[in-house]
Amino acid sequence: MPDSTGNSGAGLSWAGIVSQRWDWGTVHFNLETLLTREHRADVFVGSIIEGPSKWKVRPVAEVFYEKDFGLEETISGLVGLIWQVSDKLSFDVAYRHALTNGHPLSEIRAGLTFAVPLRLRCAQPMIRTVWVQLSHPADGNSTAAHRYRSTSGRPAGNGSH
């Protein structure tokens, strides 16, 4: 998506998500390759494991690796909980720890996922996830970021996940 303050160059991405649900939980596998606006290659590989979908509150864990060639490399792990209020609303809270170019980053995340029915020909609701994260990098500078994403892709934002 175009950025009002970023580069105006063009990039390209290809992404895929494969998910499987069993009685004991759900596994998602994410893979993305892209050419950034600065014309650098980037690769992202990640996996999310959720507890049983029947549970009102279920555990979740995520690991991912991302390499923006010529710029940065990130390895990340996350653990948290998802509270399924209804089939159209859930809340989540998580702790994430990552290493980017060897520098540690810790975040506490909180968010919500909601479905909005579209009155088009398709019967599937549009599902969106919104979350807020508080970051505390090792250098002591705290940051806060608001994120928005489609559940069908990686989060949008300032470059971290």
The counted number of beta strands is 9
Which strand order does the major sheet show? 1-2-3-4-5-6-7-8-9
Q: Which runs of at least 5 residues are low in confidence (pLDDT < 50)?
A: 135-161
Number of separate helices:
0
| Morphology | globular
End-to-end CA span: 16 Å
Helix content: under 10%
Please state the structural category: mainly beta
Radius of gyration: 17 Å
Average pLDDT figure: 80
**What percentage of amino acids are in beta strands?**
over 45%
Largest sheet: 9 strands, antiparallel
Helix and strand succession? EEEEEEEEE
Model description:
The protein has 161 residues and is mainly β. It has no helices and nine strands. It has a nine-stranded antiparallel sheet with strand order 1-2-3-4-5-6-7-8-9, with no helix packed on it. β2 and β3 form a beta hairpin. The radius of gyration is 17 Å and the shape is globular.
Question: Characteristics of this structure?
Answer:
single chain, 161 residues, mainly beta, nine-stranded antiparallel β-sheet, globular, disordered C terminus
Task: Summarize the helices and strands and which ones pair or pack.
Elements (H helix, E strand, L loop, with lengths): L11 E11 L2 E11 L5 E10 L6 E12 L3 E15 L2 E12 L2 E14 L9 E12 L5 E8 L11
Antiparallel strand pairs: 1-2, 2-3, 3-4, 4-5, 5-6, 6-7, 7-8, 8-9
Summary, kept brief:
This protein has about 160 residues and is mostly beta strands. The protein has strands at about 10-20, 25-35, 40-50, 55-70, 70-85, 90-100, 105-115, 125-135, 145-150.
